[in-house]
């Protein structure tokens, strides 16, 4: 690390700790040459995650959009916001851990439905009805039957 005072390229780390958000590391350094101290911040560099939409257009992944859809599905339901935020973090981590640089939007929708299914069944059905674009009551009932049969299989 280059000293901001004398320009010397070697320094030693005196103290190192995560910031409040734990997304960066704060380091106190001391220049080997002039002895002055300075602070640096280390940030993890991430590559952007690109979403391939239905119309084949591409845009950067936005966790806010996923959270917004899940919040709408949970409207007037007893689901705390922090539970949904945690679910969105899990979805993003799953996508990033897949090591794919581009991910189809349907994969994100499927992951969101999977999370909502475990959080709140009503919210799951609401999300699924919009996501899967149910055309009539029969397709809606088919999804409910699938939910009920998997629920019976889980012993609930």
Explain this structure.
By secondary structure, the chain is an alpha+beta fold. It folds into 2 domains: 11-43; 50-153, no CATH class. The chain is built from 5 helices and 6 strands, in the order E-E-E-E-E-H-H-E-H-H-H. It has helices at 63-73, 81-97, 105-119, 121-131, 137-153, and strands spanning 11-18, 24-31, 37-43, 50-52, 58-60, 102-104. It has a 3-stranded antiparallel β-sheet, with no helix packed on it. It has a 3-stranded mixed β-sheet with strand order 5-4-6. Helix 1 crosses helix 2 (81-97) and helix 3 (105-119) packs antiparallel against helix 4. The longest helix is centred in the middle third of the chain and has 17 residues, at 81-97. The mean pLDDT is 88.
Would you kindly provide a brief summary of this structure?
With 156 residues, this protein is α+β, with helices and mostly antiparallel strands. The chain has helices at 63-73, 81-97, 105-119, 121-131, 137-153; strands spanning 11-18, 24-31, 37-43, 50-52, 58-60, 102-104.
Keywords:
metal-binding, 5 helices, NrdR-like_N, 21% strand, elongated, three-stranded antiparallel β-sheet, single chain, alpha+beta, zinc-finger, 156 residues, zinc, three-stranded mixed β-sheet
Task: Give the secondary structure arrangement, pairings included.
Layout: E1 11-18, E2 24-31, E3 37-43, E4 50-52, E5 58-60, H1 63-73, H2 81-97, E6 102-104, H3 105-119, H4 121-131, H5 137-153
Parallel strand pairs: 4-6
Antiparallel strand pairs: 1-2, 2-3, 4-5
Helix pairs in contact: 1-2, 1-4, 2-3, 3-4, 4-5
